[in-house]
Amino acid sequence: MKFFLRRVAFYLFTAWAAITLNFFIPRLLPGDPVQSLINKFQGRLSTDAVASLYVLFGLNKHTTVWQDYVTYWQNLFKGDLGISFTYFPTPVSEILLQSLPWTLALVGISTVIGFALGTLAGVGLGWRRGTWADNILPVTSFFSSIPYFWLGLIAISIFAVNLGWFPASGGYDPATVPGWSWDFISGAIYHGILPALTIIASSISGWILSMRNMMVTVSSEDYVTVSQAKGLPERKVMLGYAARNAVLPSVSGFALSLGFIVGGTLVAEMVFSYPGVGYVLFQAIGSKDYPLMQGVFLVVTISVLVANMLADVAYTFLDPRTRAEG
């Protein structure tokens, strides 16, 4: 119990620090949303229009940073993330609710599939090293070494433009109405296949390599040798003893990758014009949209913290020494 209480206290402090930084960092950026619009219209806005924009965005209030910080926390506890400047007057929470499911569905499922396939392949390659299957690793390393935007563009060129197997952009068929209808869901799945395959292709090499190296290290441990000497089935020794200990570093990496799913898809969503959080964040940064940036960063922060907590819980079950040392 003491271990869990200490971990909860640590994560609460980390959450406070991250949310505080989330408040200050956007304000350290040069310029403001109105200045961004002035640059966008190349100075064609009149003085009155500029003054109206400051009033419209609520930037004409001469409050101190501390007052803004207190107001930010008060609104946060109410679930009020503010109004987006880019999508004015839509609330930030509404924009996040619309874009978050796209990101979670695309990158979440791709990350889980990539981790599962990579870990299983790493277990097999590490346990039976020196066979023809070792040729899989250079192939996957080749795809992961290609910058993602290039990999995405090549995939669009081959499978969307030349072969016409998949759509080149978008998250669903524009002819359908978003909802729980089979036409819309099947269209969303169809549009997500190509981005998902590119994400898996670019990430699976890391999972294979880390798991293979850990399996090579663990397979030479005494308890594995003793288990084999006792005549235990090879599958039980491989999965129940070697893989269970070798997977610990991968669990930590998987938890961190889950946490960065929300904000780590910027390139993928830009290449495929996918309507997720990463694309929304890109638009928010370009427009100096502080409330929207803070909303996205808040979701990323909470996702990372929750993922780390889940990793801690998983460690306590997989490796009791962690709980004892805590």
Task: Write structural notes for this entry.
The chain is globular, with a radius of gyration of 24 Å. It has 15 helices and no strands. Helices cover 74% and strands 0% of the residues. The chain has helices at residues 2-28, 33-40, 47-56, 65-77, 92-127, 136-145, 148-162, 182-218, 222-229, 234-246, 248-259, 266-271, 277-286, 290-318, 320-325. With 326 residues, it is mostly helical.
Strand elements, count: 0
Please, how many helices? Answer: 15
Overall geometry comes to globular
Low-confidence stretches: none
Q: What is the helix content?
A: over 70%
Elements, N to C (H/E): HHHHHHHHHHHHHHH
Query: Strand share of the residues?
Result: under 5%
Structural class given helices, strands, pairing?
Answer: mainly alpha
Q: First CA to last CA: what distance?
A: 10 Å
From the alpha carbons, calculate the radius of gyration and give it in angstroms. 24 Å
Mean pLDDT across all amino acids:
79
Largest sheet: none
Keywords:
326 residues; mainly alpha; 15 helices; globular
What would a concise description of this structure say?
This protein has 326 residues and is mostly helical. Helices cover 74% and strands 0% of the residues.
